[in-house]
Write a structure and sequence with these properties.
alpha/beta; two-stranded antiparallel sheet; 13 helices; about 15% strand
């Protein structure tokens, strides 16, 4: 599964239930050297996402990870929280206490830029929330795409419909201007540096069920980490049962981490992605040129360089097995 050397990784999160699970998956994965988590307003306000991130990492035994607060609002629109999905505090029915640690004196954008500059070609950035922090980092350092080892994101819907509107996925819809700036910044990058985009095409095929939750928590059900999982994830599962009639919750954000560790989990296609920022019915849509229109003589408006790899297929059983196994092992280690 990819390189044997741990990957210096920054997770940019809006912690949320599935962001919490992504953080736990990163903490449980020997391929990941998690150096920082940067926080953004998304599922809940950045004050809560920062607190939640500190709490989750402490329970995972990773209080050493630097946690930085970032953008408190999208670039150009009002913020719309998703408390119905993730709960008032972002962690379902789990009521987080106050973390023993505190947030970094660095803001999120500064941390991203400074870490990339200090370790050129070594830092993997993974965004699992709105891309506001990444857009701010690009404003401060336009060379960021060439400084990073790589960039991956959970966002978009490329050959399928959206989950907030018929055409838009939640992370992009919350800040389409930021997403547009980010995709444009990677335009024409070398293939090995193109962002890897894990969108609804694949994340809606990987689930965590009530049975999976029991399996993960079984080594130490009374531990603080197991209680976090057992109190937060069922709320998320129940949301999907009520709105989608699914027997499980989509593991959007953990799949983004897993696909960086092992890109063979997904089938990828390189393409051009544009983000719709004007449409009355399509604002936040990620329009992918999957038919290669940009190379046809009449498509002058699309004659632009590739700027992304998008995932269109996923080995769901392989992901789920690995995900459950690693989280179970983390719970056991924290008993």
């Amino acid at each position: 599964m990819g390189s044997t050397d741990p990957i210096r990784t920054i997770l940019d999160v809006d912690t949320g239930v599935d962001d919490a699970l992504a953080l736990l998956y990163a903490a449980a994965s020997p391929e990941v050297h998690l150096v920082a988590a940067t926080c953004v307003t998304g599922n809940v306000h950045v004050t809560k996402t920062t607190r939640n991130t500190l709490v989750v990492l402490e329970l995972a035994g990773r209080a050493d990870v630097e946690v930085a607060a970032g953008a408190d609002r999208p670039l150009a629109q009002e913020w719309a929280p998703f408390t119905i999905v993730h709960g008032e505090d972002g962690l379902g029915k789990h009521v987080p206490g106050e973390p023993s640690g505190s947030a970094s004196p660095r803001d999120a954008a500064s941390l991203i830029v400074e870490e990339a500059a200090a370790h050129p070609g070594e830092v993997q950035l993974i965004a699992t929330g709105p891309m506001t922090n990444v857009a701010h980092a690009l404003e401060r350092e336009p060379r960021l795409p060439s400084l990073l080892r790589g960039f991956a994101l959970m966002g978009g819907a490329f050959a399928c419909g959206g989950n907030v509107t018929p055409r838009a996925e939640a992370n992009v819809w919350m800040d389409p201007e930021a997403a547009a700036r980010v995709f444009d910044a990677w335009s024409g990058a070398p293939p090995e540096r193109l962002p890897r985009c894990v969108g609804l095409d694949v994340t809606e095929r990987v689930w965590m069920t009530h049975t999976d939750i029991e399996t993960v928590c079984s080594p130490a059900p009374a531990s603080a980490l197991a209680r976090l999982i057992a109190e937060s994830v069922p709320h998320y599962v129940d949301f999907y049962a009520a709105t989608r009639s699914l027997d499980g919750a989509c593991m959007h954000d953990p799949l983004a981490v897993a696909a960086v560790i092992d890109p063979t989990l997904c089938a990828w296609t390189s393409t051009r992605v544009e983000v719709e920022t004007e449409g009355a019915w399509t604002r936040g849509e990620t329009v992918a040129d999957l038919l290669d229109v940009r190379n046809r003589p009449w498509a002058t408006g699309w004659a632009r360089a590739e700027n992304a790899f998008v995932a269109l297929e996923v080995d769901a059983p392989a992901f789920t097995s690995r995900f459950v196994e690693r989280l179970r092992g983390l719970v056991e280690s924290r008993a």
